[in-house]
Amino acid sequence: xxxxxxxxxxxxxxxxxxxxxxxxxxxxxxxxxxxxxxxxxxxxxxxxxxxxxxxxxxxxxxxxxxxxxxxxxxxxxxxxxxxxxxxxxxxxxxxxxxxxxxxxxxxxxxxxxxxxxxxxxxxxxxxxxxxxxxxxxxxxxxxxxxxxxxxxxxxxxxxxxxxxxxxxxxxxxxxxxxxxxxxxxxxxxxxxxxxxxxxxxxxxxxxxxxxxxxxxxxxxxxxxxxxxxxxxxxxxxxxxxxxxxxxxxxxxxxxxxxxxxxxxxxxxxxxxxxxxxxxxxxxxxxxxxxxxxxxxxxxxxxxxxxxxxxxxxxxxxxxxxxxxxxxxxxxxxxxxxxxxxxxxxxxxxxxxxxxxxxxxxxxxxxxxxxxxxxxxxxxxxxxxxxxxxxxxxxxxxxxxxxxxxxxxxxxxxxxxxxxxxxxxxxxxxxxxxxxxxxxxxxxxxxxxxxxxxxxxxxxxxxxxxxxxxxxxxxxxxxxxxxxxxxxxxxxxxxxxxxxxxxxxxxxxxxxxxxxxxxxxxxxxxxxxxxxxxxxxxxxxxxxxxxxxxxxxxxxx
Length: 556
Ligand code: HEM
What we know:
One of its GO terms (molecular function) is iron ion binding. It is a peripheral membrane protein. It is found in: Endoplasmic reticulum membrane; Microsome membrane. By secondary structure, the protein is α+β, with helices and mostly antiparallel strands. The protein has helices at about 5-25, 30, 40-50, 55-65, 90-95, 125-135, 140-165, 175-195, 210-215, 220-230, 235-240, 245-265, 275-285, 290-310, 315-335, 345-380, 380-395, 410-420, 455-460, 505-520, and strands at about 75-80, 80-85, 170-175, 430, 435-440, 445, 450-455, 520-525, 550-555. A hairpin with a 6-residue loop joins β5 and β6 (about 445). α7 (about 140-165) runs antiparallel to α8 and α16 (about 345-380) packs parallel to α20. The model is unreliable at about 295-305 and about 305-340 (pLDDT under 50). It binds protoporphyrin IX containing FE. Protoporphyrin IX containing FE binds near residues 122, 357, 426, 502 and 505.
C-alpha cells in the first residue's frame, strides 16, 4: 500500500470513528441525563413507518406514549435528534400556557422564498406569528361569526335541497357521507375565506378548488423527503433549495388569491365580509395603525377570550381564567409590537393565511362531521335524543335555529365534544423549545431546539382519563360529568396562545351540518358501511380512508 492509500484509509477510518462517536453521543443523550426514554431504534422504526406510509403519523407517537407509561414525561428521538414526549396533564397545561415563552413555535422559521404559502399561523414563528395572530383574532369575533352563520345556513339549505332531490323517489338514499360533507364544507369555507361560490354541492366533479385544497394536508414524496431532511437537520432542506409544497397546489392557490385580490380592488362597494376582504382592509390600514392600536388590542383580548368560552363549559372554566390572562398578555405584547414599522399583512401572508384557512376549513371540519355521522348511524338512541333537542329549540325560537340558539343545544355540544374526543382531528400537538427550559422540580434543562410532542390521541384514549375509550358516549360531557374531566386530558383544539384560532367557526360549521342532517333525516348503516373506520395514513390530520357509506331516510 503506498503512502497516499494509507493516508486515505486513515482519513476515512478517523471520519467514521468521529461520526460514530457523535452518533453514539446523540443516542445516549437521554441515558446520560437519567431521563426515562424510548429506544432510538423504536423511534426510528416509527419515523420510517410514517415517512414510508406503513402507519399513520400519530401511531408512532401513541407507541411512544405507551412506552413511557408511569412517567410524566420522557425522552424520545426524531431520527437522531432528542425530543420530549409530555404525558402528565398538569404539566401539559402548565407548559402550553405559562411556559409559552419557552415553547413558542411549532417548527423552524419558514422560508418565504422556498415556500410562498408559509406566511400562515401554523408555520410562522416568533414575533411575526404574534403580530399576524393579533391581526387575525378579530376575524373570529362574535359579530363576524354572526355574519358567517348566514353563509353557513345558505350552504346547509343547498345541501338539504340536494338531499331532498336524492330522496324524492324512495324516501331514502345511500351515499358516501364523507364526500357529501366535504362538498358542503368546501362551499362554506370558499365563501367565508374568499367570498367565492365553489359550487361543490351542485357540481362536485368540476370543483377544482376542492381537489387542490384536499391535497394540502396530504403527504407526497416531496413532503416526506422534506420532513426527513428537516428532522436530520432543519437547515438541510434550505441548503438544498427544497420546498415542502406541491408546486401545482402552490401555483393554483397563488393565482386564485391574486385574482380574488384584483377583483376586490375593483369592487368599490366593499360589502363583502370574507377573510380576504378583511385581510386586505388590515393591510391597507397598517399605516394608520398606531393611532387605533389600543382599541384593536381590546378587541383581540375579547376575541381570544370569547373563543375559550365556547370550549367545554365548566371543565374549562379555569382555563378561561388563564386564557383571559394570557389573552391580555398577548394583547399587551401585540400593542408593543404594533409600534413595529414593517408591514405585517404582506401579500405572502395574505396568500399563506387564505391557503391555510381553506385547507383547515375543508379537511378537519368534514372529517369531524363524517366521524360524527358514522357514530350517529351506530347509535340511534343518541340520534333520537339529539333530534328531540333540536326540535324543542326550533319550536321555542319560531321554527328556525338562529345563531344565538346554538348555545342552547347542550346535547349537540356533548355529541360534538365526544366525537372530537374519540377522533381528535389533530392527534399530535407539537412545540419547539425556543428558550432553554428548566423542568420544574428537576435538574433537567431542556435545550433550545428540542421538540416537544403531546399525543392528544393517547390522552383521549387513555382509560385512566376516559374509561372504555372506544365507547362513543356523549354523557362524558354532560353537565354532571364534565367537571370530572381532568384539565389537560382533552385537547381537541390545542391549548395556550397557539390554540386553534378558528375554534368557534369550526364548531359552528360542524354543528350546522349535523343539525341539517339530523333534522330532516335519520342516519343508518347499510351493507356497505365499514365495520371500523380505517384512518388515512397519507394525511397529517385524522380522516377516514376511503368511503364512509351510510343510508339516509327522510323523516316523515
Ligand atoms: C373541527 C375542526 C378543527 C379542529 C379540530 C382544529 C384543531 C386545531 C388544533 C388542535 C390546532 C393546534 C393547536 C395547538 O397547537 O395548540 C389548530 C390550529 C390552528 N387552526 Fe384549527 N381546527 C379546526 C378547524 C379550523 C378551521 C376551520 C380553521 C380556519 C378557518 C383553523 C385554523 C387554524 C389555525 C390558523 C391554527 C394555527 C393557530 C396558531 O398557531 O396560532 N382550524 N387547530
